Amino acid sequence: MTPTTGTHTDIGPLTLRPLDPLKDAELVHSWVTHPKAAFWMMQDARLEDVERAYMEIAADEHWHALLGLHDGVPAFLMEKYDPAHHELVGLYEPEPGDVGMHFLVAPTDRPVHGFTRAVITAVMAHLFEDPAVERVVVEPDVSNKAVHALNEAVGFVPDREIQKPEKKALLSFCTRERFLNRHSYAATAVSA
């Protein structure tokens, strides 16, 4: 599969390509069931569960899964969704140009300083490459303090706590303007 987009960062090139629900399932299964992925809520998933979940996403016009590569090696997972159809239906009033996002960095024995921040920045730059996207919406678990700090670093502003069926979440928004004001290199990639 050909990468759909790429961003050069301080840690090297990060690219995204569509996730193949069957070919990538074993790799993604090892990520989502790892103890560090507890907030992904698939700790007890079997390989078949991961295949099924991502086949459902692949068949859904309002939800897309992408595999992120660092120097050509799979290193993170990204999902983008239409919040008018998934995750947040009935929990907030979507605005035109809203897109929802999830991301997961693969577990590693050799962490690279700044890697996760580079990933979320590249994910946001990818989302804002679409001129129709004006605001990114996230709904992380309220107790996931690490992701709240990352979200704030790229420009998210918390709105309020919401109760989802599976968790209490912190509804947060990042506008295109706020993101681009914080990330000058991303502004060049998004406007190119």
Shape: globular
Given the helix and strand composition, which structural class is it?
Answer: alpha+beta
* Number of β-strand runs: 8
Point out poorly predicted stretches. Answer: 185-192
Strand content is 25-35%
What would you report as the Rg, rounded to the nearest angstrom?
16 Å
What is the makeup of the main sheet?
Answer: 8 strands, mixed
Give the termini separation: 23 Å
Major beta sheet, strand line-up: 1-2-3-4-5-6-8-7
Q: What is the H/E order? A: EEHHEEEHEHEEHH
Number of helices: 6
Mean pLDDT: 89
- In helices, the fraction of residues equals 25-40%
How would you describe this protein?
This protein is of the alpha+beta class and 192 residues long. It has six helices and eight strands, in the order ββααβββαβαββαα. The chain has an eight-stranded mixed beta sheet with strand order 1-2-3-4-5-6-8-7.
Summarize the structure.
With 192 residues, this protein is an alpha+beta fold. 31% of the residues lie in helices and 29% in strands. Mean pLDDT is 89; it is low at 185-192.
Task: Present the secondary structure layout.
Elements: E1 5-9, E2 12-18, H1 25-32, H2 47-58, E3 63-70, E4 73-81, E5 98-105, H3 115-129, E6 135-138, H4 145-154, E7 157-163, E8 168-175, H5 176-182, H6 184-191
Parallel strand pairs: 5-6
Antiparallel strand pairs: 1-2, 2-3, 3-4, 4-5, 6-8, 7-8
Features:
single chain, 192 residues, alpha+beta, 8-stranded mixed beta sheet, 6 helices, 8 strands, globular, disordered C terminus
